[in-house]
Amino acid sequence: MIRALWTAATGMDSQQINQDVIANNLANINTVGFKKARADFQDLMYQVYSKAGVETTSGTELPVGLEVGMGVKPVAVQKMFSQGDYQQTDSEFDLAIEGDGFFQIEKENRTVYTRSGNFKVDRDGYMCNSDGYRLIPEVVIPADTVHFLVDGGGTWSAVDEVGDVLASGRIELAKFLNPAGLGSLGRGLLEETGGSGEAITGNAGEDGLGTVSQHFLEMSNVNVVDEMVKMIVGQRAYEINSKAIQTADSMLQMVNNLKR
Question: Which segments of the chain have a pLDDT < 50?
Answer without folding.
Answer: none
